[in-house]
Amino acid sequence: MIPVAIVFIIALILYIIGTGKTYNEGLPLLVDILKNEDEELVVNKKDTSPLSSWDIFKEYILNDINVWFVSFIDVFTYMIRFGVLTWLPLYLLETKGFTKGEMSTAFAIFEWAAIPSTILAGWVTDTYFKGKRMPLAIITLLGVGVAIFAYWGGKDLLTVTIGAGVIGCLIYVPMFLSSLQTIELVPPFAAGSATGLRGLLSYVLGSFSGTALFGILAHNFGWDAGFYLLLFAVFGCIFCCIMTHRGVMKLESKKIERLNGKA
């Protein structure tokens, strides 16, 4: 309850002091304040006349295939994350014969390994991939696939723990990068709707598949069936990353044409 109360208070403060768009307060448009921003963005983000929430959702979310691909990146990563997170204790105790202490160690490593990877992910994409988010996401997903095999087939404590740690370390990278990519794919007034779609699909489809569906498969067909589901999620996520990257490249080409037309 304490975290909920803290978040509620922060949200209430922001709601009270938030003032909306710049021109509502007599300030220039953001595109006038950030004059060079248009050269750095994937899409043209100029403010338009006021649109209803439904108009924004219909025009900039429902009809944008790139938003759907990036949303399903989150669905598949949540499937993997919750599949491991939810069933790791029982799997290690029941199948691998771990003690509760050993299981707790593997569980802690899975969670804590995410901290350095998420801190570095944004910096790496900006420094080495020139702002392209999806190549690093694909690389880390390949690592997740290998780690799933280690976690799944490992016979000793070290192998299984390393596998769990690598999954925990890498699976948060595509989750984090998909958040950045979503913001970059839509105008600022549609960012909330795009993020909302991602969140809805992630929890309704992703977390359900990683928890309930994994459990149903494992119960009826054995643990291997659950791990096949996780591997399917890895391949599905890589496919969505590739399609998102292709969409970004097309938008980049249009941006170059737009900027050349201004020259």
The dominant shape is globular
* Count of distinct strands: 0
How large is the count of helical segments? Answer: 10
- Architecture of the domain at 75-83 and 91-262, according to CATH? Up-down Bundle
How would you describe what is shown here?
79% of the residues lie in helices and 0% in strands. The protein is mainly alpha-helical and 263 residues long. The protein has helices at 2-17, 30-33, 53-62, 65-94, 100-112, 114-128, 134-153, 157-185, 191-221, 223-262. The termini are far apart. The chain has a domain at 75-83 and 91-262: Up-down Bundle (Growth Hormone, Chain: A), CATH 1.20.1250.20.
What features would you highlight for this structure?
263 residues, mainly alpha, 10 helices, 0% strand
Task: Annotate the secondary structure layout.
Layout lengths: L1 H16 L12 H4 L19 H10 L2 H30 L5 H13 L1 H15 L5 H20 L3 H29 L5 H31 L1 H40 L1
Helix pairs in contact: 4-5, 4-8, 4-9, 4-10, 5-8, 6-8, 7-8, 7-10, 9-10
Structure summary:
The protein has 263 residues and is mainly alpha-helical.
